[in-house]
Amino acid sequence: PGCVGYYWDGKMISGDILFADGKIGWMDAHWGSNYLDIIDSMGRIEALAPTHLLPTHGVPFPFDSTVSEKARATAKHILDEKLAGVLEKTKRAKLRDPDEVPRTLRF
Asked: Model confidence over 64-74: pLDDT tens digits?
């Protein structure tokens, strides 16, 4: 979701994608990043299996997959909430007559 990671000798500078408490980065979560990308990024970090993560903000910490699993669960929860909101809006939307010509087009 826009973060860059540097990996060497078992350590990874991870940007703000993941913190020691398993929270996802504020910029990622609140500035429109794609939650599917965040979920995918957790898998990429796990595949590297770093011994330590060094986030841009916060303290370096020994990496354990439970941290990325917590972040993944948070991203999935937020994604599920957003999807539920879209589905609810869809249910309430006024359906237009299929023969009606739209007056406004969005591109």
From this structure: 999 999 999 99
- Evaluate if pTM is beyond 0.85: no
Burial of 22 (C-beta count, 10 Å sphere; 0-12/13-18/19+): middle
DSSP class of residue 21 equals T
H-helix segments, 1-104: 26-30, 35-48, 65-92
Burial of 56 (C-beta count, 10 Å sphere; 0-12/13-18/19+): middle
Degrees, nearest 5: CA angle 71-25-50: 60
Beta-bridged to residue 18, according to DSSP, are: 24
pLDDT single digits (tens) 61-97: 999 999 999 999 999 998 898 888 877 777 776 666 6
**Exposed (0-12), middle (13-18) or buried (19+): which is 106, by Cβ within 10 Å?**
exposed
Tokens of 14: 């991870």
